[in-house]
């Protein structure tokens, strides 16, 4: 019987049908979705921290309003993705427990510090730019709730990317000091942004199965190449230089060749030894602990409302 269920499932995937939470699915399909989707949700929530750091120091009211809205969107994306993941049978408490204990990962990129205002430009331009490329592909993913979440999230991400590019553009057109700030931010965020797409395909243990199940629609290297090809002309347009001496247009492949990523640095950051890993986890754990009374009060309130309805 399992055999025929599995065959039917594979046939549905082959027909590009969406798999919905109550449909039969192989246990490994469920597990790998919980892994990727919960890590995606954690990345959105931890991703609020580097930029949150700049809300009170944004250089104008207009910048402050935009940044506040962006960070708020990220919180919304995280909650949306947690809800989508819950449909696979894991609770939100379990997901937080996995994050706080270090069992679940979140994107390496958020373990780097945002040290100047130009970093807020670089995060929007490069980090959201990379996120969109990854997430546009995920709009066609096979699990219905994840695909639908991505469609909505991508719309907001494109506003995030544009606000970041505009910050960088203004700095690049500003005084020599401002232009130097924009270049310095690009220098520091470029390589970590390329790392967001994960290990090379031949060193990515999850890619082959995830491509078969159409969880992933493009591989890590395909998406990384797309990001480089899209971003280099954007840097050129505003007079900034990509910090890669090996970057070169390849006429034959109609794309850029680029230098080797520092994979030691990538794995160090993924394993918890990046510049801000400890600080980020401390912020999340203390938010969870300090918020306990709010969660308790909300539960008691909900119970009281329920009692009122019954009586
Ligand atoms: N950081 O076999 P693969 C955002 C792990 S955007 C940390 O290739 P997979 C928006 C990977 O989990 C960022 N860990 O894995 C925003 C696996 O470990 P595991 C979030 C990484 O899953 C913008 C191991 O390495 N976006 O938040 C990373 O097939 C601005 C082997 O790797 C998403 O999560 C990494 N960079 O491919 C917010 C997108 N790369 O789980 C605020 C959805 C790999 O077996 C401000 N996720 N690892 O223990 C994906 O597309 C995939 O999960 C990949 C990794 C591509 C990230």
From TrEMBL:
Coiled-coil segments on the chain, per record: none
Entries under InterPro entries matching the protein: Aromatic_CoA_ox/epox, Ferritin-like, Ferritin-like_SF, PaaA, PaaA_PaaC
Enzyme class: oxidoreductase
GO cellular component: cytosol
Residues spanning the signal sequence: none
UniProt entry tagged with the keyword Oxidoreductase: yes
Keywords: Oxidoreductase
GO BP terms: phenylacetate catabolic process
EC number of this enzyme: 1.14.13.149
GO MF term list: phenylacetyl-CoA 1,2-epoxidase activity
PANTHER family: 1,2-PHENYLACETYL-COA EPOXIDASE, SUBUNIT A, PHENYLACETIC ACID DEGRADATION PROTEIN PAA
Name of the protein this chain belongs to: 1,2-phenylacetyl-CoA epoxidase subunit A
Organism: Pontimicrobium aquaticum
Gene name, Swiss-Prot/TrEMBL: paaA
């Amino acid at each position: 019987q399992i055999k025929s269920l599995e065959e039917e499932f594979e046939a549905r995937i082959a027909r590009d049908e969406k798999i919905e939470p109550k449909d039969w699915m192989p246990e490994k399909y469920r597990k790998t979705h919980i892994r990727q989707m919960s890590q995606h949700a954690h990345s959105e929530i931890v991703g609020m921290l580097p930029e949150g750091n700049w809300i009170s120091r944004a250089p104008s009211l207009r910048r402050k309003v935009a940044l506040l809205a962006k960070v708020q969107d990220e919180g919304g994306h995280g909650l949306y993705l947690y809800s989508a993941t819950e449909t696979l049978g894991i609770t939100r408490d379990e997901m937080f427990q996995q994050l706080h204990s270090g069992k679940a990962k979140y994107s390496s990129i958020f373990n780097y510090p945002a040290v100047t205002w130009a970093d807020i430009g670089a995060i929007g331009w490069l980090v959201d730019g990379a996120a969109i490329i990854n997430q546009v592909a995920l709009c066609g993913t096979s699990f219905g709730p994840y695909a639908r979440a991505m469609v909505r999230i991508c719309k907001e991400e494109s506003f995030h990317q544009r606000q970041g590019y505009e910050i960088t553009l203004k700095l690049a057109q500003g005084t020599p000091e401002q232009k130097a700030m924009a270049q310095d931010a690009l220098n520091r965020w470029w390589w970590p942004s390329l790392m967001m797409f994960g290990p090379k395909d031949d060193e990515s243990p999850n890619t082959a199965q995830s491509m078969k199940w159409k969880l992933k629609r493009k591989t890590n290297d395909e998406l990384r190449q797309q990001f480089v090809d899209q971003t280099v002309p954007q840097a050129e347009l505003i007079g900034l230089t990509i910090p890669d001496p090996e970057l070169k247009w390849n006429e034959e492949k109609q794309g850029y060749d680029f230098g080797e990523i520092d994979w030691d640095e990538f794995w160090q950051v993924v394993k918890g030894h990046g510049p801000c890993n400890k600080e980020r986890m401390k912020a999340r754990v203390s938010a969870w602990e300090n918020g306990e009374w709010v969660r308790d009060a909300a539960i008691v309130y909900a119970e009281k409302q329920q009692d009122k309805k019954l009586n």
